[in-house]
Design brief:
This is Calmodulin-binding family protein. Keywords: Cytoplasm, Nucleus. The chain has about 260 residues and is an alpha+beta fold. The chain has ten helices and seven strands. The radius of gyration is 20 Å and the shape is elongated.
Length: about 260
Amino acid sequence: MTELKLQKVYKSFHTIRKLADYAILINQSWWKLLDFAELKRSSISFFDIEKHETAISRWSRARTRAAKVGKGLSKDVKARKLALLHWLEAIDPQHRYGHNLHFYYDKWLKSKSREPFFYWLDIGEGKEINLEKCPRAKLQQQCIKYLSPMGRLAYEVVVEDGRFLYKQSGEFLHTTKEGSRGKWIFVLSTSKNLYVGKKKKGSFQHSSFLAGGATSCAGRLVVEHGVLKAVWPHSGHYRPTEENFKEFISFLEENNVDLSNVKVL
């Protein structure tokens, strides 16, 4: 079955170079398949070895192709896109952790290779490179989960009578459960939908909720049985501004959240 799928891909793209780019899709879900297709021109398959590019122009092209990073900006001009460090993560079909990718990106820049970064990294001249600061095993293991539109519904939180509860289950949000140590993170979409989940370094981060799309605000919070106890605008992926945080506070006030005893850090 897998061989048949590969043959179909080969017939569709006619070249082994593009086949290598798409072979990784075989075991992905349909949503991931569509996501990958959207990113293909900004990663491995946008490969023209005859075309000379400077490091600056290559990075500029990658940024231009990463339209998904700006999803939602039209709804909120003050929204935050992913920080530059994590753009690579968003346009990587595997969504490997941006911090790790940057070690290899720096190596690629210094190599002055004419191959696009992701082609260089996975198939081309850089495929055998194994950096001490970030071994290949770690690079491949730490992939950020990007939620599909259906997948993020389980993380959507609404505010009713000033208390936080999951929209799907109706259960109150509670981040301080016994044995539930760790940081709980949130993002507010540009459509003013709130998503909350437990952070898992190297696998589930702020960028997970909206699949790398823009946010109105992102940060951390503490909620006990639906009651907000603390909130702060800390996100390495989005780096929210003071203005973004004020917008989130306004969102809370509009939803009758009592902020009198909330720690704002």
